[in-house]
Amino acid sequence: MTKRTIVTCILVSALLVGCASDSASISKTDEAPVTEIPIEQRIEEPAINGEDTLVEDEESAKKQEKEELEEKPEPETVEKPKEETKEAPKETSKEEQKPVEKPAQETSSLPNDKKSWWFKRNSDHLPPGAQSEIDIAKYDAYYLGNTKEKKIYLTFDEGYENGYTPKILDVLKEHNVKAAFFVTKPYIQSQPDLVKRMVEEGHIVGNHSVTHPSLPDKTDEEVKHEILETARYFEEVTSTSMPLFFRPPAGEYSERTLQITKDLGYKTIFWSMAYKDWDVNNQPGKQAAYEHIVQNHHPGAIILLHAVSSSNTEALGDMLKYLRDQGYTFASLNEL
Predict the structure, then answer these.
(1) Do the domain assignments include residue 80?
(2) Active-site residue (options: 208, 297, 298, 306)
(3) Tens digits of residue pLDDT in 236-268
(4) Structural domain of residue 148, as residue ranges?
(5) Under 8 Å between Cβ of 235 and 276
(6) Boundary-marking domain end, from 74, 100, 120
(7) Which of 79, 244, 302, 311 is 20 to 30 A away from residue 319, measured at CA?
(8) pTM summary value
(9) Marked catalytic residue, from 140, 157, 220, 277
(10) 284-298: per-residue pLDDT in tens?
């Protein structure tokens, strides 16, 4: 064998060995991505995109299904708290609306024994005693004002018009006295101009119900309607809100009705001075009306007069002058 032949054989062998090593290295680098890249894709892609990945063998497919099953509950567990947090505020808002109904629930446990307001006169010009069965103060109810000063709170009840209210307003204006008029809805309906005049001249126009019923005989909703409907109609006629003072019709009440009135934001106004002046067919006369004031005045008196009385109307000017001469000033229910 010649030297040239030997050299050629050596070169061919070297070339063959090099090709073999190159092919081996290529095959090794090809295997790496097959075993690693799809695994990374199966971990990352479902978490970000939630999409299926393609696999070539059954084992990787099973692994993928397991991973998808494990991943699917995760969005559910995230969504469930969101649903609960959305429902929670709804329940809270409903509870916040319940206080509107709470007065009815609270009053159901309160006594509904019918009471008629009464007080006991004295001849010493001292504030009189009155019923003590119920602590009316806790229901924002009053029958006296400021008893430490010589103040008078003058009030009139207006169930219907008997022709005397214009004269009463004239006398009050002449003596610069402000009073409170407790009116019913029918009175407002029949006498809108007089009611407007009361407001314009600075008097309080209080609430005396719609139908003048005995409130303990009414349900909670009926009591509320008697008060709220009168206030609604007053505002419709006068374009002003009705002051939050209520006088129970006929002075009849119970703890339940006092609580309802309080829950509506009203002060209940009873009285410490009154007499039988409402019977238009049996009027005592001007002098008797005047003597009633002379004999019973006292500091903090809430005086109840009925505007249907001719006796009250005739004596009113003299009443006001006498009380001022005794050192009294006329106060507003707003001071209570």
Answers:
(1) no
(2) 306
(3) 999 999 999 999 999 999 999 999 999 999 999
(4) 138-335
(5) no
(6) 74
(7) 244
(8) 0.70
(9) 157
(10) 999 999 999 999 999
Q: Which of 54, 74, 94 is the last residue of a domain?
A: 74
Tell me the percentage of the chain whose pLDDT exceeds 90. 67
Residue 89, exposed/middle/buried by CB under 10 A (0-12, 13-18, 19+)? exposed
For CA atoms 36, 42, 45, 47, give the dihedral sign.
Answer: negative
**Residue showing tokens 């978490």:** 47
Q: Are residues 181 and 299 in the same domain?
A: yes
**How is 24-87 classified by DSSP, letter by letter?**
HHHHHHHHHHHHHHHHHHHHHHHHHT------SSHHHHHHHHHHHHHHTHHHHHHHHHHHHHHH
In a domain, 54, yes or no: yes
Residue 205 has phi, psi (to 5 degrees) of -110, 105
- Whether 157 is a known active-site residue: answer yes
Of residues 216 and 62, more confidence is placed in 216
Residue 149: CATH number of its domain? 3.20.20.370
Q: Is 201 helix (H, G, I), strand (E, B) or coil?
A: coil
Query: In 10 A of CB 278, how many CB atoms?
Result: 18
Q: Based on the fold, state whether residues 67 and 161 are members of the same structural domain.
A: no
Place of tokens 């002098």: 287
279, 280, 304: which is closest to 292 by C-alpha? Answer: 304
306 is catalytic: yes
In the numeric block, the tokens 């008196």 are attached to 301
Contacts 24+ apart (CB under 8 A), 97-106: 103/220, 103/259, 103/260, 103/263, 104/220, 104/221, 106/259, 106/263
Residue 90: inside a domain, yes or no? no
Four-point Cα dihedral 175, 177, 183, 186, nearest 10 = 30
Give yes or no for a contact between 265 and 139, defined as CB atoms under 8 angstroms apart. no
